[in-house]
Design brief:
The complex is a heterodimer. By secondary structure, chain A is α/β, with parallel strands linked by helices. Chain A contains 21 helices and 15 strands. Chain A has 4 domains: 117 residues, Beta-Lactamase (2-Layer Sandwich); 124 residues, no CATH class; 74 residues; 223 residues, P-loop containing nucleotide triphosphate hydrolases (Rossmann fold, 3-Layer(aba) Sandwich), CATH 3.40.50. In chain B, α6 links the parallel β6 and β7. The chains are: A alpha/beta, B alpha/beta.
């Protein structure tokens, strides 16, 4: 049973709403922000954990004990969502949504893309059809009790609404539909009523069959309207199915309309463009599979739309938008602000750096330290790489350099515990945090050992390490030099910390070595949905910058 | 016969020239239309305000927008000229895509007569305040590049409700938070870019931030869109539309 059914446009306007029970707005807004905006479903595929897939078109999303099933239509773009408690299982809901979508597309003719509202009459007719379809769905489910509670409220509401507008409505109908016959309803034969009552049945449709006693219309007639309505619905639905089978025929003068109102993009005339686009992306060091997915997404959004510019240009624009959306973080991270508030609570802020061997973990950690030191924070650098010989000594060189560069030498210190196994790492981390607390350090930077992302034995200790140290931020350092492998690196590291904990952001190092081939950034963000905060642009301590999304997109598109 | 066809071709030529001129003019004038922008966090009521201002009616409901609402024939009062009204999505991922890109465009920024920043007074917690400050920071950095800035209306939606934060308190919190951001911004790392811009933005000064420093007016006005209590906001818009 559906508790809330909505039809809305990407512009945020709800065109049709049927709510049996109040569902918090955050449920459908969560769907929009997680699926439609962040497109997280395509990123991880874990949001959709339905056991049965009826269709690829029907998506499902769960939040706070509610489950939403949704379909979307293009041209004009509309989203159809049906929300119900996660405890209830509604069979055929996908089909129901798709049928409603078909009906909507068939009945509503207003130009929704331009922001217009649908015609009142059309909407009323749609409402009646919708209610019939809903009843049909309920019958299938067999939830009798649910039916009575759910229909009573909207029924009375819509009836009130109708009463006010009824006379006006019927008149309109006459003018539009019954011109040739010119007869009022009551005098009409049954045949005509069969044909035309679809619109007047809005009242009938809204009323439950059980509520009919005492109404103006006789019962038999009502039954007829119902039947004829169902017939019309089924006609529309079957027509739609036929249409999808048969090819669309183009009129003789369609090229003219194309000339004036822009070309309609089809699958065929996109193939060349999409090929060159994905080649462009791959040349920029974007992994082929991700380039393919990005281009597919663009194709999907473009097919069926009308473009006034050339198709390659429109596709480029779409790609630019897509990249901009991808690289922009969902919530802005303000590291200094967080450190400040942690400092106010007299707790050290713990940042941990992870990554593959040789990407520049220690170097970027030192750059971070330099930046924080220049902001007058006290930083404790901790050597948690107990594995590779020389790792601690390497950090000591950095710390000594930093000591010379800051005004007060006591602002930076090295905490180390020698070399050993995985248990030692957690012990050092814990010890460092305790030491920092006792000695009033503001920030603890944990340098971990580099590890191969596809070696489970090396990745496993990360979980224990994070559990022990509970870092405020886990940063993965990834290098811009790496190609396709960056996808797997980011994915594996992101999943290494156990349930409930992921990476917080990336630092992309060695950006000065790749020129404009910064595709690895796209790879890592696409694979995980984790944003990039800093980029390393050189050898010195000052060569750390925040990422400018505009810059990255411009570079990628050039 | 020859003369006739010559005349026809001449007429056609003139028509074409006229038509192209008209089309060009129309496109041109579209860019120079005065514009008002509605921005703010998700769920503050921007889309509702947009529909109310343009159609005088509210949709059944509204959800998080994915695309901006945009109209070129917005009239605040019958006798005034048509203007542009844009409602930008408030989701963080989409701000960069639509709002900031538009504000970076100098032509559009110049044509902007006023910016309506909508907030939900009931939801105005410290966290919400930080979010608003963050966005205002980005917006002001761009609008204050103009000699006279851009007038901003901080529309406190649902202001009449019992749980709503009073306006003076909202103003105080925002001012404090924006100054906080200014201080942090001075310490932050600069962003990567091709050209080295020497950060001469509004917030790079050492002065403590206050709304009085701004070049453009910054007004806090309450209202409630669902109850149709928008007169004060409309007055504000009308004032700027006349000038």
């Amino acid at each position: 049973m559906s508790e809330q059914f909505l039809i809305f446009t990407p512009k945020g306007t709800v065109l049709f709403k049927d709510e049996d029970r109040k569902v918090p707005d955050r449920v459908v807004n969560g769907l929009i922000s997680d699926i439609f905006i962040s497109q997280r479903k395509t990123l991880t595929g874990s949001v959709n954990n339905e056991e049965e897939f009826e269709d690829d078109d029907v998506g499902s999303y769960s939040l706070d004990g509610y489950t939403i099933k949704y379909v979307s239509s293009s041209q004009p773009t509309c989203y159809f969502t049906s929300c119900h408690s996660s405890l209830v299982n509604v069979p055929n809901e996908g089909q129901f949504l798709k049928d409603i979508q078909t009906l909507w597309e068939e009945l509503i003719t207003a130009d929704l893309d331009s922001g217009a509202f649908p015609d009142e009459q059309e909407l009323r007719k749609f409402t009646s059809f919708y209610n019939l379809k809903k009843q049909e769905l309920f019958k299938n489910v067999g939830v009798e009790t649910a039916k009575s509670t759910s229909t009573s409220e909207p029924h009375s509401l819509s009836q009130n609404k109708l009463k006010g507008k009824k006379p006006q409505l019927t008149q309109k109908k006459k003018a539009r539909r019954w011109d040739t016959q010119g007869n009022p309803i009551e005098d009409d034969g049954l045949e005509e009523s069969d044909l035309d009552f679809s619109s007047t049945t809005s009242e009938v449709g809204n009323q439950d069959v059980g509520h009919l006693v005492g109404d103006n219309y006789g019962k038999t007639k009502d039954g007829k309207f119902l039947v004829s309505d169902m017939k019309e619905i089924n006609d529309i639905l079957s027509k739609q199915r036929d249409k999808s089978v048969s090819d669309e025929s183009t009129g003789a003068f369609s090229f003219l309309s194309g000339l004036f109102s822009g070309k309609t993009v089809t699958e065929d005339n996109l193939t060349k463009t999409s090929k060159s686009l994905s080649e462009h992306l791959i040349n920029k060091n974007v992994a082929p599979e991700i380039a393919k997915k990005l281009v597919e997404r663009i194709n999907k959004s473009l097919v069926g739309t009308k473009v006034t510019t050339s198709i390659p240009k429109a596709a480029r624009n779409a790609l630019e938008k897509e990249l901009l959306k991808l690289l922009t973080p969902e919530t802005s991270i303000n590291l200094l602000k967080e450190i400040q508030s942690k400092k106010a609570a007299r707790k050290p802020y713990v940042i941990s750096v992870v990554g593959v061997n040789g990407v520049g973990k220690s170097t970027n950690l030192s750059k971070l330290a330099f930046w924080l030191l220049s902001n007058k924070y006290r930083v404790l650098i901790t050597a948690c790489d107990t594995f590779r010989s020389g790792a601690v000594e390497q950090l000591r060189v950095h710390v000594n350099n930093l000591k010379k560069l800051t005004e007060d030498e006591s602002h930076v210190e090295l905490f180390q515990g020698g070399y050993g196994g995985a248990d030692l790492v957690s012990k050092i981390a814990k010890g460092a945090i305790q030491y920092a607390e006792e000695n009033k350090f503001d920030i603890v930077l944990l340098d971990t050992a580099g590890r191969r992302h596809n070696d489970a034995q090396l990745m496993a200790p990360l979980q224990g390490f994070v559990k022990a140290a509970k870092p405020d931020k886990i940063i993965m350092v990834g290098e811009a030099l790496v190609g396709t492998d960056s996808v797997q690196q980011a994915k594996n590291f992101n999943g290494a910390f156990g349930p409930g904990r992921t990476l917080d952001f990336f630092i992309i190092s060695k950006c000065d070595t790749v020129g404009d081939l910064i595709g690895s950034m796209v790879n890592m963000v696409y694979a995980t949905g984790i944003p990039i905060l800093f980029v390393g642009t050189g050898q010195t301590y000052t060569d750390l910058r925040t990422l400018s999304v505009d810059w990255a997109v411009d570079t990628l598109m050039s | 016969m020859v003369e006739n066809s010559f005349l026809i071709s001449l007429a056609v030529a003139i028509l074409v020239i006229l038509a192209s001129f008209l089309i060009f003019h129309k496109i041109q004038s579209k860019h120079q239309l005065h514009s008002f922008l509605i921005v703010g966090p998700s769920g503050s009521g921007k889309t509702l305000l947009f529909h109310y201002l343009t159609n005088r009616k509210l949709p059944v409901h509204s959800v998080t927008s994915i695309e901006p609402n945009d109209t070129y024939n917005f009239k605040i009062q019958e006798h005034l000229n048509e203007m542009r009204l844009v409602d930008y999505p408030g989701h963080n991922k989409l701000l960069q895509l639509y709002l900031y890109t538009d504000l970076n465009n100098p032509d559009l920024l110049k044509s902007c007569k006023g910016l309506i920043y909508m907030i939900d007074s009931v939801a105005f917690t410290q966290e919400y305040c930080e979010l608003v400050a963050q966005q205002l920071f980005q917006i002001l950095n761009r609008t204050e590049t103009l000699p006279n800035g851009v007038d901003i209306l901080l529309a406190c939606n649902k202001n009449d409700l019992f749980m709503a934060k009073p306006i003076f308190q909202i103003k105080e919190m925002l001012e404090k938070e924006l100054d906080n951001l200014r201080q942090i911004n001075l310490k932050n790392l600069s962003a990567v870019s091709e050209k080295d811009n020497d950060n001469d933005s509004f917030f790079s000064s050492d002065r403590t931030f206050s709304f009085d420093q701004l070049e453009g007016n910054f007004d806090f006005v309450g209202g409630n869109i669902i109850k149709g209590n928008t007169d004060k906001w409309e007055c504000w818009i009308a004032e700027r539309a006349v000038n």
